[in-house]
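for the writeup, i need someone to sanity check this before i put it in the appendix. the sequnce is what the collaborator sent (i think, or maybe the updated version? ugh). structure was predicted straight from it, no edits. if anything looks off just tell me and ill rerun, i have time this weekend
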Amino acid sequence: MKQKKSGSYYTPPGLSDFMVGHATKSFTRCQRKIKILEPSFGEGAFIKSLQKRIAAKKDFSFALDAVELDRRAFQTVRKSITNNDFPLKIYNKDFLFFSDQDKIKYDLVIGNPPYIVKKLLSDKQESKCKLIHKDANLADKSINNIWTSFLAGSVLKLSADGVLAFVLPFELLQVKFAEELRELLVKIFERVEIFTFSKIIFCNIEQDTVLLFGYKKSKKKGLFFSQIDCAEDLYEGKYCLKKGNYLKEKPLKWSNHILTEDEMSLLFDIANNLKSVDDYCNSATGIVTAANKYFIVTEKTAKKYKLKSVCRPIIQKGLFVNGKVDFDERDFDDLKNSGKPCYLLCFPDKNEDYFSDSIQQYLQEGLESDIEKRFKCQKRDKWYRVPSIWKPDAFFFKRCHLYPKLLVNKTKTLVTDSAYRISAHTGYDVNSIAYSFYNSLTLTFAELSGRFYGGGVLELTPNEFKSLPLPYINVSKREFRNFESIFERKKNIKNVLNIVDNHILKETLKLSNKTVQEIHSIRKKLVSRRIKV
């Protein structure tokens, strides 16, 4: 937890050496002294790399200001610094407040900003983060993580021809709250370089990272990307920066830079002639209990407290329902018999003394665990009454691994907010929606639209799911039963996609074999990158 609060994930020496070498190329043979800022020096990796750089080749001179909030890290680095070949000032301060204490502009800001989520920030820090966003002319003042304010604040500290070099989370390239930051980068910097990695380079976290270099002045302008197979390739100069300007000309996530402009054009030329998921169905977030461990119980717990009278079947997690395109009574029995939580407690609108002694005992245990004090429970008329309980026609689980999961609900089973609840629009049926969903084009757009985590999990927001292109066709009940059987017997999702692609992409959309194979290749490239194959 201490690491989470400080947000400190220290930079490997090889990485800081590369970043210093790459960023300082702009200053070779510069006649004046360069001013450098390190806003969160941690263990001093970048200070040491700058020491090595100037000791190896004295082709420019500089002065360094280095800032660190953590007192212990500050003292450790201060004691370790000896025989410096350049002026160095170190400050035991929070960069958020250091950033506006003077009007100094820096030629290079370099470092690895802390990664601290909003809930771990002090009120003072959160307020300051919002002010920094405002100063950077960001319309979105809300704060999700401190790194966004470090980035915006550092951009503001740069000189007219300054350079920025940061280690940042992969979030920069793909999440909604970073979209405006991406726009800021291409507006401020004439040249932006992004290095991404096929493997996780910080071994103590399951978080993909990127290297960002921004140059306010450059002869070779544009947005450039390089995908690095391993860190050693980076250190040995075995990389190629490829232009990706098409990503800033369209509302595309920068995480899609591994695709070429031609590949993007192929996908969008087809998708632009199709309707989206939300043209065929409504989708809404699943049930929010506020305390799944309390409100969703196993068969054993339901019997122990005699809760069956207030129980309704529910799926708590997507990993409980793998391998099928439908969910039936046998599946629920398997879930129940496995001992997993599978019953939602749906209490009637009655006072506590209405219930049996055993149910009152369970409610009392909830009070003793402070369940009623949870934020969402406090907003309810009765803390134990979970709202918005209705059965969907199908479930789409917002997180997945090998492929997105959309299941037809053949039971009265409910679902938590791990999924979106689907109901077909008039004139369409849920079987046909599910069948049509499992084609390579739609699943490729799921990869393009969603975000992914270091462990390979893909996540789609409600709007991202709704906007997926869907080449809908009607299928009969007999055809869907056959599809269910194929889906359940499949060795992998390719077996299903090949059948649906032949029916929908080739026969219905009249796409050529070559085009369909190109879509397969694009999807494979995106999935392999995500799950690190």
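The chain has a mean pLDDT of 93. Residues 513-531 form the longest helix (19 residues).
thx in advance!!
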